[in-house]
Write a structure and sequence with these properties.
2 domains, Urease, subunit C, domain 1, about 30% helix, 12 helices, eight-stranded mixed sheet
């Protein structure tokens, strides 16, 4: 495929991986970055992108986004959600294994890759199933999944049968140097809960999910991670205590990392008040102190990645009584403005905000992307921090309209996304 020579000029280039932060030119040719900051002698562009007054950074890497295909096309498709990803500046995303069929064979990995290539707007990295059919008992063919292209394995939000299965799974994954992704939640402590167990759940009469559902699951996994030496990642943390436990383990040399969903940096249990099903999320939104602890951990790097945890739903999924509605938010298109909002408020440096969306997740998976260095893949996001906008149905690209941010004014909007040097979104 022939790639155009592209010049992105006039913008503030921020590349946390190299520490570069300055106004200048970004030159791209043959799908890779040629130079950052200056324009080489003799470089003639086929296409120019004027980024004056805007921020130019690596394309975002999203560690958890459900595309709903195959198996739940009534909620979304690879085509629709890839378009939403590109509009949100995301160039690479990880798809959890709980599709239908489950991502537990090379054939399903191949199907996802083929459909992602047909859509052509985002790089999809399927996360393979840790157990066959996510049944929690029988280990998957991990080596076959790795050969098919899976860099990580997980059991989505399905529990394992007992700790011995977990130990054997971690040993097997470690032998192939695969990352194991945890969504820590003890199913018995969660029980039938649907919101954080606390003051709000008591007032509303809703069954609660205690913080210990998360911390007990983390506490069980950490000794086995340390024993087996596997590379492990805890996704979508919701409590400050879980962050502390993981940070303590990492200080001892345990190979573990963590991320948080961007909406957990904003919403709390109070947002569920009024039985707002758009705020029905799993893990649930917890206390203000938990939210502040998560923000602090993102700022200081104890949490090295922020994801969208994108879960598009059809309208009916949110129209039942609260406990019967389906949890999850459509969040690819709000990932950038919510992160920019934290930077604009001074809660973390701009370079750190971008790092949590780029080089942070890239390091977790061992990817060469997430940076704007010469020779790196030209995955690029250009966004205008001055644009103020309110999410509206007519401009929303995801098939899922389930966001609690409809009436909220957001700042920062993507104006261009390049995938391998090819424009896949231009506003």
């Amino acid at each position: 495929m022939t790639h155009a020579r592209i010049l992105v000029e006039g913008g503030r280039i921020v590349d946390p991986a190299s520490g570069f932060d300055g106004t200048g030119a970004l030159c791209i040719a043959d799908g890779v970055v040629v130079s950052v900051g200056t324009r080489p002698d003799g470089f003639e562009a086929d296409r120019r992108i004027d980024a004056s007054g805007q921020i130019v950074c690596p394309g975002f890497i999203d560690l958890c986004a459900r595309l709903r295909e195959p198996g739940q096309e009534h909620k979304g498709s690879i085509a629709s959600e890839s378009a939403a990803a590109a509009a949100g500046g995301v160039t690479t995303l990880c798809c959890p294994p709980d599709t239908a069929p489950v991502i537990d064979t090379p054939a399903v990995v191949k199907l996802l890759n083929e459909r992602a290539e047909q859509a052509g707007t985002v790089r999809v990295l399927p996360v393979g199933a840790l157990t066959r059919g996510l049944n929690g008992t029988d280990l998957s063919e991990m080596y076959a999944l790795k050969r098919a292209g899976c860099l990580a394995l997980g059991n989505a939000d399905r529990p394992l049968a007992h700790p011995l299965v977990l130990r054997r799974a971690l040993e097997y994954a470690a032998s192939f140097d695969l990352v194991v992704v945890f969504r820590p939640e003890d199913p018995w402590l969660r029980s039938e809960g649907c919101v954080h167990e606390g003051v709000v759940s008591s007032r509303l009469g809703l069954p609660g999910i205690p913080e210990t559902a998360e911390t007990v699951a983390v506490a069980q996994a950490l000794p086995l991670i340390e024993q087996t030496g596997v590379r492990a990642h805890f996704g979508q943390l919701s409590s400050g205590r879980a962050v502390e436990m993981i940070a303590e383990a990492r200080a001892r040399g345990v190979r573990v990392s963590a991320d948080v969903a961007v909406h957990h940096l904003y919403l709390t249990e109070s947002d569920v008040d009024g039985f707002d099903a758009l705020c029905h999320c799993r893990p649930p939104f917890r206390t203000r102190s938990d939210r502040e602890a998560l923000r602090a951990a993102v700022a200081d790097g104890r949490i090295s990645a922020v994801c969208s945890d994108h879960q598009p739903h059809e309208p009916d999924a949110k129209l039942d009584v609260f406990p019967e509605t389906e949890p999850g938010l459509s969040s690819l298109e709000t990932l950038l403005p919510l992160m920019w909002g934290l930077a604009a408020e001074g809660r973390l440096a701009l370079s750190d905000a971008i790092a949590r969306l780029t080089v942070g997740p890239a390091a977790i998976l061992g990817l060469a992307s997430g940076r704007l260095a010469p020779g790196a893949p030209a995955d690029v996001c250009v966004f205008d921090p001055a644009v103020s906008w309110v999410p509206a149905q007519g401009e929303w690209l995801s098939a899922g309209r389930n966001t609690p941010f409809w009436a909220r004014a957001l700042s920062g909007r993507v104006t261009a996304t390049l995938l391998g040097g090819r424009p896949v979104y231009l506003r």
